[in-house]
């Protein structure tokens, strides 16, 4: 197949025999969702794909009052229930990630099961950090100990 590229890039996009941009055309400044749509259009029926993206690709445009092409494309993927999981990748933990994904588990600092409605409420922002808080190692003092330390600090300040 030969594709004739004219001066107007929409000439090619509008005549795309593979319907790669069924959810919209990404902005020229970022092709992330163009590539995702290309891969999605290339899938056979009942197949899945995994995509590794920078968090900017899943959050750009959320919260804007006007239309945003990237957010609008994400919105269509969410509304059609095509996004099954969004995972924040920690360093060197692939077996843990696979276990959490295949068992559909929530794990502090790694995963959270969310609904399409929750994603819509957040203006289709699919950034993992919006839903998964990093695990903290700091220990919380019991109230009695914290009050005791506060009293001691106040006494030292006054003396």
Question: How would you explain this protein's 3D organization?
Answer:
- It is a single chain.
- This protein is mostly helical and 159 residues long.
- It has 7 helices and no strands.
- It is elongated, with a radius of gyration of 23 Å.
- The model is unreliable at 1-9 (pLDDT under 50).
Task: Outline the fold blueprint.
Layout lengths: L8 H6 L17 H11 L26 H11 L14 H9 L13 H6 L6 H4 L11 H16 L1
Described by strand count, sense and barrel closure, the largest sheet is: none
Helix and strand string, N-terminal first? HHHHHHH
Gyration radius, rounded: 23 Å
Q: Got a strand count? A: 0
The percent range for helix content is: 25-40%
Beginning-to-end CA distance, first to last residue: 86 Å
**Which structural category do the helix and sheet elements fall into?**
mainly alpha
Low-confidence stretches: 1-9
- Summed over residues and divided by their number, the pLDDT gives a mean of 83
Counting H and I runs of at least 4 residues, what is the number of helices? 7
- The coarse overall form would be elongated
Strand proportion: under 5%
